[in-house]
């Protein structure tokens, strides 16, 4: 296929098998599953080439002849290296090689003097070329999700760099020349192993966004020249014990996070609210040990999101203290009238300020796991509130006008001391979730009749004095669409031709209804010989796991007379007067020995199978014993499996590796109840009997 493309045509058909270019400037060959490029596929006049998301493992040698190429996209391939003569792409300005398998970069890459954007996210780079600082024109550098352990010493020579992404690497230190990046505006070094910041870090003058989260930093620089221009600063999940004074000089800060550190007392000076009051909208101090906030905290009048609680994102955490240690909120807290979301769970709050109701824009409130005894009357003025979480407090009552919260959709007050709900509660007609679990309610609230939008209701563990079945309860139940019958016996919508239909062994009972049910399910009648064959097959490799050469004995257990539940082991005592015709010797002694042998496993009485099928199949099993002997081969297993022929089921347990286990049940051959729920239970003998194969040897000799 021959085609000509201009700057407005970038799509190429996937059916093409020949590539040429006539005066082409932009060529898009992305997502075509290409494994290589034929000769003469690329025009020497190409200005932009997109080979992203193919199966390229290398770039052809002719690639370096594209001297007019300015933009190259090779992301999402399988490249392990770039051409050694990359420096011949003298006009290259942008190189996007994200999501490949690059381990190293060629030294010639550092000679691209016009390169302004270099994206190498999601590779396997462990280091950068030593002359990496020669890329003096570089403005954007993305090296996220690599394996870099250090940066070259001349990294500070990238003085035109504006964006630097180094998250999710293995950096422990930044070079001492890092502060020379005078034009750097966006920095992300999160998810590394940084233990400190170089002293030159404070010399960065133009930084607007800085993310140093998820490192091991204990101390921030004492000064920071970018403090006045900084707009976003994230230092969460570090080991900070205190904050420097320049935090109070961030006059343009919009988002600030010190989440999950070790800050104590009041980490912010009184200057912070005054300096940042006009710009700050998001403040996250969750997961520290803060004891109090500045009294002028209310001067943060543009604050919309405030998190003072726990960094653990789940409601029920028992009684662990993951939040802060605030005993109260400052009196000026009610001045935060722009506040939309407030999280202060897992603190030591005993109450709320009287002006708390002035937060008229508040939509989400989490005060769970505190020590609040009552809510102020002004609380009912929070008419924009949609979610209110006050679980695990000491509330004995709610304000009388609580029903004024007309927009409330989610109210959770479990594990409190509420004895009743106010009459106005019935006006919460938009309520969808109501959780009053474990309170002191004595009657079912009448307000429930008016809450027609409820999708979740829990009032268990109260003092209602009525049967549990009569307690109203609404729980969301996950529902799944019915499977298309056409996909039956298929795997992910594909027919499984390799599957062979097999019958499942089930027990046939005398009950007519059970028999009809089994006929409908096309089941196979229970047969002791089938189980006997399965047992023999499972034990045929009993010597292959370096176990002892002597096999453990099987002792016929007495046939029980009363029926037992169909479960794996039943330890109820059974007495039987039936004789075991095949046991040999004195019947009473064998019965006694059998009982003692079984009791040695369970510490009690023998385990018995369900007797419904024993008598019905005893004759059939006995009649098949001769043919079974021939199938066994040289060894005669009839005596070992005589219990199967007599109507009782006994099974060997396999010897464990090395030392014998004290528990024989771990090595027993017991069919899974999940797959064969109707197969009866089995006797599992423990003690071996000397000379157990004597009879078999005598038969062979005869």
Can you give a write-up of this model?
The chain is low in regular secondary structure and 702 residues long. The protein has a domain at 527-701. It has helices at 271-276, 512-520, 528-539, 587-602, 614-623, 625-632, 642-645, 694-701; strands spanning 26-28, 48-50, 71-73, 94-96, 117-119, 140-142, 163-165, 186-188, 209-211, 232-234, 255-257, 264-265, 282-284, 289-290, 305-307, 341-343, 364-366, 387-389, 410-412, 433-435, 456-458, 473-474, 490-491, 494-495. It has a 20-stranded mixed β-sheet, with no helix packed on it. A two-stranded parallel sheet has the order 12-14. A hairpin with a 2-residue loop joins β23 (490-491) and β24 (494-495). The longest helix is centred in the C-terminal third of the chain and has 16 residues, at 587-602. The radius of gyration is 39 Å and the shape is elongated. The model is unreliable at 1-24, 499-511, 521-526, 539-689 and 697-702 (pLDDT under 50).
Instruction: Output the number of helix runs.
Output: 8
Helix content bin: 10-25%
How would you state the average pLDDT, rounded?
76
Distance between the termini: 85 Å
SSE topology sketch:
Blueprint: E1 26-28, E2 48-50, E3 71-73, E4 94-96, E5 117-119, E6 140-142, E7 163-165, E8 186-188, E9 209-211, E10 232-234, E11 255-257, E12 264-265, H1 271-276, E13 282-284, E14 289-290, E15 305-307, E16 341-343, E17 364-366, E18 387-389, E19 410-412, E20 433-435, E21 456-458, E22 473-474, E23 490-491, E24 494-495, H2 512-520, H3 528-539, H4 587-602, H5 614-623, H6 625-632, H7 642-645, H8 694-701
Parallel strand pairs: 1-2, 2-3, 3-4, 4-5, 5-6, 6-7, 7-8, 8-9, 9-10, 10-11, 11-13, 12-14, 13-15, 15-16, 16-17, 17-18, 18-19, 19-20, 20-21
Antiparallel strand pairs: 21-22, 23-24
């Amino acid at each position: 296929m021959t085609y000509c493309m201009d700057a407005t045509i970038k799509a190429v058909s996937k059916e093409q098998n020949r590539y040429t270019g006539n005066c082409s400037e932009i060529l898009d060959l992305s997502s075509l599953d290409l494994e290589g490029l034929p000769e003469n596929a690329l025009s020497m006049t190409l200005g932009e080439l997109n080979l992203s998301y193919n199966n390229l493992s290398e770039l052809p040698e002719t690639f370096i002849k594209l001297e007019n190429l300015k933009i190259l996209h090779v992301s999402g391939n399988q490249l392990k290296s770039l051409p050694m003569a990359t420096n011949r792409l003298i006009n290259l300005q942008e190189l996007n090689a994200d999501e490949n398998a690059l381990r190293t970069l060629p030294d010639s890459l550092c000679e691209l003097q016009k390169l302004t954007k270099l994206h190498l996210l999601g590779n396997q780079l462990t280091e950068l070329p030593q002359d990496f600082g020669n890329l003096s024109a570089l403005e954007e550098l993305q090296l996220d999700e690599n394996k870099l352990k250090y940066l070259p010493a001349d990294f500070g020579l990238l003085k035109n760099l504006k964006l630097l992404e180094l998250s999710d690497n293995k950096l422990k230190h930044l070079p001492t020349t890092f502060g020379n990046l005078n034009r750097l505006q966006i920095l992300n070094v999160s998810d590394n192993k940084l233990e400190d910041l170089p002293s030159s870090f404070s010399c960065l003058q133009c930084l607007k966004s800085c993310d140093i989260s998820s490192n091991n930093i204990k101390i921030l620089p004492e000064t920071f020249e970018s403090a006045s221009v900084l707009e976003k600063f994230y230092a969460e999940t570090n080991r900070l014990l205190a904050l420097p004074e320049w935090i109070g000089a961030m006059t343009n800060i919009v988002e600030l996070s010190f989440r999950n550190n070790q800050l104590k007392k009041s980490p912010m000076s009184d200057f912070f609210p005054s300096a940042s009051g006009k710009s700050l909208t998001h403040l996250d101090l969750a997961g520290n040990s803060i004891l109090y906030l500045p009294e002028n905290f209310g001067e943060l009048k543009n604050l919309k999101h405030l998190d003072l609680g726990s960094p653990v994102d789940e409601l029920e955490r028992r009684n662990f203290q993951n939040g802060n240690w605030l005993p109260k909120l400052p009196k000026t807290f009610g001045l935060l009238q722009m506040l939309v979301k407030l999280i202060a769970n897992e603190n030591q709050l005993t109450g709320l300020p009287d002006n708390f109701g002035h937060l008229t824009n508040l939509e989400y409130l989490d005060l769970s796991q505190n020590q609040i005894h009552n809510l102020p009357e002004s609380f009912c003025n929070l008419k924009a509130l949609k979610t209110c979480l006050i679980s695990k407090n000491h509330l004995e009552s709610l304000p009388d006008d609580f029903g004024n919260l007309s927009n409330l959709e989610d109210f959770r007050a479990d594990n409190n001391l509420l004895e009743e709900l106010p009459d106005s509660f019935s006006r919460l007609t938009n309520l969808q979730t109501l959780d009053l679990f474990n309170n002191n309610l004595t009657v079912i609230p009448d307000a429930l009749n008016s809450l027609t939008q409820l999708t979740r209701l829990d009032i268990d563990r109260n003092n209602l004095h009525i049967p549990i079945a009569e307690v109203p309860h609404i729980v969301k139940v996950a529902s799944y669409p019915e499977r298309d019958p056409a996909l039956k016996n298929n795997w992910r919508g594909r027919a499984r031709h390799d599957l062979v239909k097999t019958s499942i062994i089930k027990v046939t009972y005398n009950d007519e209804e059970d028999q009809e049910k089994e006929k409908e399910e096309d089941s196979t009648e229970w047969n002791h010989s089938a189980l006997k064959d399965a047992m023999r097959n499972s034990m045929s490799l009993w010597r292959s796991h370096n176990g002892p050469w002597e096999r453990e004995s099987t002792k016929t257990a007495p046939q029980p007379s009363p029926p037992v539940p169909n479960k794996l082991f039943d330890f109820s005592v059974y007495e039987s007067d039936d004789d075991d015709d095949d046991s040999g010797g004195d019947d009473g002694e064998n019965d006694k020995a059998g009982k003692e042998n079984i009791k040695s496993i369970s510490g009690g009485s023998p385990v018995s199978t369900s007797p419904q099928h024993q008598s019905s199949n005893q004759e059939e099993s006995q009649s098949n014993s001769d043919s079974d002997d021939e199938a066994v081969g040289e060894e005669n297993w009839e005596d070992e499996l005589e219990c199967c022929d007599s109507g009782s089921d006994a099974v060997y347990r396999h010897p464990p590796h090395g030392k014998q286990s004290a528990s024989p049940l771990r090595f027993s051959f017991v069919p899974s109840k999940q797959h064969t729920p109707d197969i009866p239970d089995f006797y599992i003998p423990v003690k071996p009997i000397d000379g157990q194969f004597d009879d078999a040897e005598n038969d062979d000799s005869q």
